[in-house]
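Extended Data, panel c. Modelled sequence:
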Amino acid sequence: MAVINRTPDSFFDRGATAEFGAALETASRAVADGADIVDIGGVKAGPGAEVTSAAEIDRVVGLVAAVRERHPDVVISVDTWRSEVGEVAAQAGADLLNDAWGGADPRLAEVAARYGTGLVCSHAGGLPPRTRPHRPAYGALVRDVTAYVTEYAERAVASGVRACSILVDPAHDFGKNTWQSLELTRGLGELTATGWPVLVAVADKDFIGEALQLPVDQRAEGTLATVAVCAWLGARIFRVHDVRSAREALSAVAAMRPATRLRSRRRHTRHRRNTLHDHEGFGVLWHPKVFVIMKR
């Protein structure tokens, strides 16, 4: 999953892809480098200038339509917690709604159900969107995160979202400090064992920077190490800035990892229509408005 930020204040690229043309070309490079999913966002995750729903829609929806036209086979994700943004994005051709804020707007799942899109069910520790945690505390972090995202996924299914189009994301650094994000990485196998396909968004994040005492532009090696650990523990989707390097790291993990079958709750793979190129065993099955993560 390639990250495309149409924001002037992104923590990573500092606005390099804020302009429409730059964002579209970055998406095309990501697809050429092997991205199966392009994740488009219009609001910085952390605190910053207010971005209204209308402004977010303006940043995101035109790019969704342009990427869909240029790359008809790529899975398009939109990083938003707002149902009104999700609805317009789905109408424009988005296949996946990436809710990084853990259901802050419960109507987002209803939008996913109405339009048949996928949904990412994340854990943000109950924080309001775009806020940072202050001394976050958990009784048992991995257990709490696992319980929250699986319950969110089950609620989404009850709302009409197809189980085969749901991902769960433990959301490193969202509602968590560095020690907690590291603990979550070590214990990721508990979440992957639930059978829900797991997305990890770890690229260049602060927990990596603080662990290594490195600024954001020097976290590439730490990111790849974290991606490899998460893959070994069973994660299926990896949200990254450097697609080519991540694919190479995942290919190495797949070569070393014993051949196993993903324990999955999904039962829709017999209707597969096309299989995108995978990470030597970490793949995305794609059919209209549905994707299924599988180990081959």
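Residues 261-281, 283-296 have pLDDT under 50 and may be disordered. This feature is highlighted in the accompanying rendering.
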